[in-house]
Write a structure and sequence with these properties.
Helix content is 27%, strand content 30%. With 372 residues, the protein is an alpha+beta fold. The chain starts with a helix and ends in a 17-residue tail after the last strand. Strands 7, 8, 9, 10, 11, 12, 13, 14 and 15 form a nine-stranded antiparallel sheet that branches. It has a six-stranded mixed sheet with strand order 3-2-1-4-5-6, sandwiched between helices.
């Protein structure tokens, strides 16, 4: 080797050494980034308006986040305030692992008041997932919306709200897993929340009437099903949907769960002689096909709330169903009409005929039964 070739060899050795260091550094950085990507990213979007805020919501969110995995990326966003105000929704805790305790503390300290700016909250939550960082979940990206209202207080065009959410999801190009939970949501607004959920390809909302129901629902929703698990399909078929009748509403979901709400008549707080209100009865229901064309419903816990305030009330006088009792459903001549059979172990409050949203388009006299 000549004197002139030795420096060249040394230079190439230095170049190779530098290249090796760079490759190792890039590889190490890649490993760090890969390990930083969570399997699950879950965002809580909470209604802090005057209609939706309560200590029960804060407590349920706090309990739910303690049920998540250490590596789950969690965040908290609130909505509620003045219409048109850019601050009527805000991210309270950004997405990241190890945020459970922060979210629990922050949920209890949220200021309340204003109108239910549902559209602003959900649109902003979608936007939170649009960036490259914080990292989206490898397996699940879930947005859990907890709301006291089923409509946006600032937009009378509820159809426009649905279109805006659909457009936002499409523009973002994301696969988001929405879950809507209504807490003490007025019965008249539940159908709209169901339609809103459908607009973003979410399953039907779940409606909780008690703090215990709300806490149990949120705890279940923060535990995604194992990847690759095959969901159990229950042949609910044409029974699935929202069925209404004079003062009552029955929601039947394809997974065999549902909710029944009915007019309970006047109820009175025994501690306040003059406090008389019209009440609603509520019960979660589990449905099971019987194999003979009927559907058996099993009542969960039964509770009553005042129509005007949504506050819990003692049961009004009368015979009401109780948890564990059953009733049966069958189609009454047409698919758009259901009849509650008289057999079963539980009392069925109110009119036994239910109709779906399309029944009013028919002139057949059988459809008049649901409004009788």
């Amino acid at each position: 080797m000549t004197a002139t070739t030795r420096p060249r060899v040394r230079r190439w050795r230095w170049v190779l050494a530098v290249v090796c260091v760079v490759v190792v550094a890039i590889g190490a950085a890649g490993v760090v980034v890969w390990r930083s990507i969570p399997d699950y990213r879950i965002a809580f979007v909470v209604d802090t308006s005057a209609a939706g805020a309560s200590s029960a919501v804060a407590g349920a969110v706090g309990a739910a986040v303690q049920n998540t995995g250490d590596g789950d990326a969690l965040s908290l966003r609130r909505f509620g305030g003045r219409c048109g105000d850019s601050h009527n929704t805000a991210q309270v805790v950004g997405a990241g692992a190890g945020h459970a305790a922060r979210i629990s503390r922050s949920a209890r300290g949220l200021a309340t008041g204003g109108s239910a700016t549902l559209e602003s909250g959900v649109l902003a939550a979608i936007n939170d997932f649009s960036g490259h960082y914080p990292f989206r979940g490898r397996k699940v990206n879930r947005i859990i919306v907890v709301t006291g209202r089923g409509t946006d207080a600032c937009n009378r065009d509820q159809a426009g709200v649905k279109k805006a959410l659909q457009a936002k999801v499409k523009a973002a190009g994301l696969r988001l897993d929405f879950r809507f939970v209504g807490y003490l949501t007025p019965t008249g607004e539940q159908a709209n929340l169901t339609q809103l959920a459908s607009a973003v390809n979410a399953s039907a909302p779940e409606f909780a009437r008690t703090p215990a129901d709300l806490a149990a629902t949120l705890k279940r929703l923060v535990i995604p099903k194992p990847v690759g698990a095959v969901p159990v399909k229950i042949p609910i078929g044409s029974f699935a949907g929202t069925w209404t009748v004079h003062g009552s509403q029955l929601v039947i979901r394809p997974d065999g769960t549902g909710d029944l709400t009915w007019n309970g008549g006047p109820c009175q707080d025994p501690n306040a002689v003059e406090d008389v209100s019209l009440c609603e009865g509520h019960s979660h229901v589990t449905f099971t096909p019987t194999g003979d064309g009927r559907l058996m419903g099993t009542y969960g816990a039964v509770s009553f709330t005042a129509n005007d305030t949504g506050k819990p009330k003692p049961p009004p006088p009368g015979e009401w169903p109780s948890g564990g009792q059953t009733f049966y459903l069958r189609h009454y001549e047409k698919d758009h009409n259901l009849l509650v059979s008289s057999n079963g172990t539980g009392t069925r409050p109110g009119n036994p005929y239910f109709c779906d949203q399309y029944a009013e388009n028919h002139n057949d006299s059988t459809y008049q039964l649901c409004g009788a």
